[in-house]
Amino acid sequence: MVTLKQLAKELNVSISTVSKALNNSEEIGKETIKRVKELAELYNYKPNKVALSLKQNRTNTIGVIIPDILNHFLSKVLFGIEREASLHGYNIMTCISNESLEKEKESLQLLANGSVDGFILCVSEETQIKNEIEHFKQTIKQGLPIVMFDRVAHDVLCDKVIVDDFDATYRATKNLLDENRKQIAFMSNIDDLSVGKLRERGYNKAILESQDYKPLVLNIKKEDNAQDKIIAFMKKHKNIDAVISADSASGVIAINVATSLGLKVPKDISVIGFSSQSVSNHSIPRLTTIRQHAKEIGANAAQMLIKRLQNITGEPYDFKTKIVKTSLVKNGSTL
Amino acid sequence: MVTLKQLAKELNVSISTVSKALNNSEEIGKETIKRVKELAELYNYKPNKVALSLKQNRTNTIGVIIPDILNHFLSKVLFGIEREASLHGYNIMTCISNESLEKEKESLQLLANGSVDGFILCVSEETQIKNEIEHFKQTIKQGLPIVMFDRVAHDVLCDKVIVDDFDATYRATKNLLDENRKQIAFMSNIDDLSVGKLRERGYNKAILESQDYKPLVLNIKKEDNAQDKIIAFMKKHKNIDAVISADSASGVIAINVATSLGLKVPKDISVIGFSSQSVSNHSIPRLTTIRQHAKEIGANAAQMLIKRLQNITGEPYDFKTKIVKTSLVKNGSTL
DNA sequence: GTGAAAGCGCTAACAA
DNA sequence: TTGTTAGCGCTTTCAC
User: Fold this and answer.
1) pTM of the complete model
2) Any idea which UniProt keywords this protein has (chains A, B) (predicted)?
3) How does DSSP assign A99-119, residue by residue?
4) B253 and A282: CB-CB below 8 Å?
5) Which B-chain residues 99-138 have CB contacts (< 8 A) with chain A?
6) Consecutive 10-residue runs of chain A (335 residues): their mean pLDDT?
7) What is the sign of the dihedral through the CA atoms of B296, B302, B305 and B309?
8) A286 CA to C15 C1', in Å?
9) Residue B86 and residue A175: Cα distance in Å, rounded?
């Protein structure tokens, strides 16, 4: 990489002259600016980002810590973050916590040493179970702002972007009750997570309000094979006439299982699930879907962080929690 | 963030003493080392990474440029890269090219200014179609090594990690012929990509070798709805008794479509597709799958890059192309 | 055993 | 209009 020094030498001027010329400083003569720029162009000069970062005490880089990049929802959020960051001239450094508290702490520590200006993260499963928040607080105390999304630690003071999980399943369940469904099952492989719990509560509330019916819940563990579990469950409870899935897979699987058991979807049984467009294509009929607008969540998180980073005036302002509303996209798996 | 300067001041020693003490230099007295380390611990001192990078002319960061993070295969490779990099003390900066040549060039430019030590990338679709390679060559000339994976530019001299695409579909097709299938259809939504073409050629070769049968290909465009296309195709060609899918979705969809058309899988029709474990769960029976070992691809790419980065001895060595063999995982959708 | 000073590449206050 | 200098945080050579 060519440096200011080399340009200066070749042009027989000082380093600062070159620097100023490239930054269109008023101080420098037109002719000099031209000469400098031409040579810089020729050598394809680009200012060294590391040196700039050191000087300006600012890296224009956002640290993103994600529990699981194979999760379609999370990678979609990452997509949204990247796009928004890129738009504002920020890069992102991605770490994957693998749902582990230890890795999450490590990543936070590692990137907090000047590599990034702030963080966007989704709390890992282990962190939520153990309810640890010290590492977040410490990072914030060090002056690095955090924006949490989806799974958040309520006791940490920072910006947050969440989904209306409770409401989403409450409304979806109501919807099924309005279809005159009587035995609505709830399936989830995320009952350890805050969002999983909220979704289950929304379902429960709607069911209990109905007076006549009662909840029926299938919790799928990470080590289970989802398809086998759902087959067994549906064989056992033959009276199920509707399913709500809290995760992105079991909805589609439930449709396929129902079909293979000879049921007609949606005549005999309705299914609603959290999912994305691409996955909802994996069943016939297509899954009626609770869309979480993952990209918007990512974009919102990035905006909130960047706004805070660019608030150089110094005046701190209150932390916000933005709720991105889900929407119910009706496809063929409901009446 | 606390700096060496601050520690030095508080301890009434020089900055260099503190630096040496923290690095366990022989030059420094035991007692001093102890005092320094205690204070550093107390203040949770961590060396500033940006300063280190500037000094050492090395960032310990890998730039990753991926065409599409919502593609399950690609995000799995990313996972593999991240894990391997993390293991060796490297961070990754991720850019998403969105299959655009322009964005790919931009990302390369942006990160080449001292932000990263080298690149791992998968060539974007537009780049492959236009067959542009200048930006890669220039980056390499600047001294930043590149490792390409999956979709590679053959005319660029660099390390590569690829899949045995041709062989995979050749063998899979053979497999179906051995099952005595007569009309084997090939479905793809990636016929623009180098890997898509290779996969189609492998299929063609096997079919043509069989003498008796002829190829039948369905190309699905990005703007098409895959499910609708496949339904129409299978209704039109009722004699299809086997399907090979070159992308990760159409295999699963084909099973669901076949079932909905009253066919028994695998009795009446066999299906094989490129896919991952999680998606192969989205049909009943489960899809017989060509596994690409995405994580290994990522890990291999990271290893190759890191090896080159750490080859400080200077002697350049030949570029390698590593082929990660696919494997055929038999599930219920074949005999 | 400890400290001073140079230098990585850049910007900016100040001097000329 | 141009150049000198200091400094961002760190390592390392050389001097004391």
Assistant:
1) 0.94
2) DNA-binding, Transcription, Transcription regulation
3) T-HHHHHHHHHHHTTTT-SEE
4) yes
5) 109-115
6) 94 95 92 95 96 96 97 96 97 97 97 97 97 97 96 97 97 96 96 96 96 95 93 96 95 95 96 90 93 97 97 85 97 95
7) negative
8) 75
9) 46
